[in-house]
Fold:
Amino acid sequence: MEDKSLDRIEVLSEKIVTNCKLYRENKNLNTLATLKSVVELTLKEMEGFVASFD
Structure:
């Protein structure tokens, strides 16, 4: 379970970087919405991962 969460966090983090670059290039609101969604998903995944140690 731990490795699966770490893998998911890694993939989502890469998507954040990709969407940051895309937004920087085109300032498109759809890209910004996607970036926001990916950041929110990443935070939830990270919270779940950290909570698994409590």
Observations:
- Helices lie at 2-26, 29-51.
- Residues 29 and 43 are 21 Å apart (CA to CA).
- The first helix runs from residue 2 to 26.
